[in-house]
């Protein structure tokens, strides 16, 4: 974690998290940013596609660019996330993407796939980018955000504000209590 110039994602190598797509994206990003580093966190106890993913990373000679980080404690994971430039989620589907919400709570800009869950958290052009699953488009927006500190800062501030407005548990509990009182 000593190189503070990295981007990260949290999620086991699996079909849902679409990690093979991430490899294709990183391959395109390094053509513009040769020293680009990507950390995939949460590679741990149950990662059904880990070996296939490692093989794909090796075949594309991306071992110096994509780092698989094993399962960590929650505080350690948040430390990685806090130190990243921004957060990426390329999932094929989500429920309520807690990792995206955690990134927002830390004031991170986010780049996410245009799927349910992600689109409920991220506003395209406000706190990040919401994108169709096109590796060229993902790479383009990652490069743009990587190179533009002002944009990362603006998106990050908006992420934090949106988190406070929409996802603070104390607000959600109060709203739920009000619903029960009205019935």
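Sequence proposed for the structure above (183 residues):
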């Amino acid at each position: 974690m000593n190189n503070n110039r990295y981007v990260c994602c949290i999620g086991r190598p699996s079909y849902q998290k679409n990690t093979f797509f991430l490899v294709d994206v990183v391959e395109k990003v390094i053509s513009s940013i040769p020293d680009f580093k990507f950390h995939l966190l949460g590679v741990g106890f149950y990662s059904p596609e880990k070996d296939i993913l490692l093989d794909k990373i090796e075949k594309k000679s991306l071992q110096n660019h994509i780092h698989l980080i094993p399962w960590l404690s929650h505080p350690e994971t948040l430390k990685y996330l806090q130190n990243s430039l921004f957060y990426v989620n390329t999932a094929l589907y989500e429920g309520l993407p807690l990792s995206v919400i955690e990134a927002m709570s830390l004031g991170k800009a986010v780049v996410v796939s245009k799927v349910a869950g992600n689109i409920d958290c991220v506003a395209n052009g406000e706190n990040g980018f919401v994108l169709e699953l096109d590796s060229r488009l993902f790479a383009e927006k990652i490069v743009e955000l990587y190179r533009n500190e002002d944009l990362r800062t603006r998106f990050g501030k908006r992420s934090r504000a949106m988190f406070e407005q929409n996802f603070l548990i104390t607000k959600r509990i109060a709203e739920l209590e009000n619903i029960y009182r009205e019935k």
